[in-house]
Prior knowledge:
Elements: E1 2-7, H1 10-13, E2 22-26, H2 31-40, E3 45-48, H3 52-59, E4 67-73, E5 76-77, H4 92-95, E6 99-103, H5 107-113, E7 119-123, H6 128-138, E8 142-146, H7 155-170, E9 174-176, H8 179-189, H9 196-203, H10 206-213, H11 217-224, E10 231-236, E11 241-246
Parallel strand pairs: 1-8, 1-9, 2-7, 2-8, 3-6, 4-6
Antiparallel strand pairs: 4-5, 10-11
Helix pairs in contact: 6-7, 7-8
Amino acid sequence: MIPIHVAMLPAFAEQVDLSGQAAVMIDVLRASTTVLHALAGGATAVIPCSTVEQAREIAATIPSENRLLGGERHCQRIEGFDLDNSPLKYLPEVVAGKQVIFTSTNGTYTLERCRAASRIFTGAFVNLSAVTQTLIELKLPVHLVCAGTNRQLTAEDILLAGAVIDRLLASHEFEVADIQAQMAVDFYRSRPINSEEFRQAIFGSLGAENLVKLQMHADIERAMQVDLFDIVPEWNAEENVITAMKCQ
């Protein structure tokens, strides 16, 4: 049986050896969801950056007509950036043919914690089936790494991890390998997709708290939608680019 591990916070991923595993970075609100919208909208690549300064330095090396700066700090657009971290802003007419240089408070930080894995993907509800099917086909040990919010647990990421685990277990090729994975799938099974409990958990989460305060309810609604896309973003850590892998 193939093991499934979960890190409910990126700090927990630092304590394990990810080599030989398929890692999935999960930041439902909003980096994972936004990266998917960018690539589905026709962006040629997303270039993740840990800091605003790094993003600006990379932007300076790419002709302005070929790139966009996107991201947030404290849920809001960074001064001088083209876009914030709202998936609804990454429309095809905006991002098609562009490289998106992207930084976020939690998501890009978490991605860096996954660097040692053999394959590194981005997962969200909007590509739930695609990312799950990719993991089934790869047959590698799985490590689901939740971004959390400001280094604290948040419900939406744990729900997504639980949903992935639930589907992997249904294939009868995988098994839960640690207590965090078991807790995630138990949490999800009591709040399944399309239930009122699911909706309440996400809107009541730490990740949604600031978005609600800023009247960004539409971003939360979009992040809750399932299987909008059949692509799986994959990060090439050596080249530092995320590109879209089509799910067969």
